[in-house]
Each structure stands twice: as structure tokens, then as C-alpha cells.
Here is the input.
Amino acid sequence: MLKKFETSFTGWSFIAAALMLWVGHIISPHNVGEYLVASDFTSIGEHMWTWIWIFRVHIFGWVAMIVATIALASMLGKSPYRILINPGAGMVVVGTFTLALAAAFYYNYGAWGVGMTEGKSPEEIQQFMDNILFTNQYVTCFVRFGRIFSGVGLVLLGAGLVKWNLLPKWLSWYTILLGLVAMGIILFIPDYYDHFKPMFHIKALWLLAMGVVILRNGLKIPQEPNA
Here is the structure.
């Protein structure tokens, strides 16, 4: 078992990611949907600074997930583990970074839109919404592909964990299934957004489980791994 500073840092990074994502979602005074709509600005404006600070926590949850994934890959960067672990971790990082960028859009436009729509007539508000529609549409693509890229990465990462028995079997298979289901919902369900909502909590639960297991059990890394 590898239970050193590396193990503690990696485990707590996964836990921090789960907690920040959950806190930023659950206690937020308002959660936006797939698209920003005019009513979002009214709700955000009622608790402006609370919404801003809690949303920052949420965004840093994605950042913490990136840190945790890179830390895990660094611990498992030996041959033959790296053949699956490194590409998997890389795709998770790319997907998560894409989701963080999308979250930053909602954060920035959500706060900016409060000032831009305050005291305006319905016609002026609609004009503002029309002006941001193209960007909003583009960001939904960021969200979809971020989730798909993360799903591909989780499948590869989980496959590496299963093949070399680096974590408990149930958690390794959980990683694979999480990736497959995430990709399947987006690729095969046209109106995927509402169907995907539970996946956020399932992913946060995965992050928490990864952190707890790594802290408690370490990683089962043989001294001389065999292919």
C-alpha cells in the first residue's frame, strides 16, 4: 500500500472537490438551467453577492477535481499503469476544464445580466437575451462535450484501475459505469438535460468515495508491476 503524503493529498483533493461541488449547487440561492433566461437575473439579483460567492465555490470544485485527477495519475504514472491511467486522466482533465469554463460563463453572464436587465422594459430585456443567445448556445456545446470527454476519461481510468486491481473492484467498476452512463445519456437521449441532472450528484458521490477509499486504504501498487 502506498500511504504517504501523496496519498493524503490525493484523497483530500477528491473529497474537497466533492464538497465544493455539492455546496456550490445545494446551498446556492439560485441554479441556472441549460440556458440563461430572463427570470434567472431576477432571482440572482435578490441574493447577488451570496450567489456570486457560492458559485465561485462551485467552480473551484471543478478545479479541485482536476487537481485530484492529476495527483492520482502522478501516483500511478509507472508502466504499465500509465498506458490506460494517463490517457484516462488526461481526458477527465480536459472534460472537467471544459465544464469549468462553461460554469464560468454562467457565473459571469449571470452576474452581468442582473445589471444589464435591471429596470429595463420587457422589450429591452428580450433584446438583451437575443444578443447573448449565440454565446449561450455555444456554451451548451461546451457542457455536452465536457461531459462526454470526462466520460471517455472515466472509462479508460476505470479500466486501468480494474486491470491492475489498484482500488477496490466496486469503486473501479463504478468509475467505468459512471463514464459509460454519462456518455450514453448525452449521445442517445435528444433532450438529455433533465435526464442528466442526477449524474452531477452521482459524480460528486464518486469523488467522495475515491477520496475516502484512497485515504483509508491507499493504492494497491505492487513494487514491480507486471503487464
Summary: The chain has a mean pLDDT of 93. The longest helix spans residues 122-163.
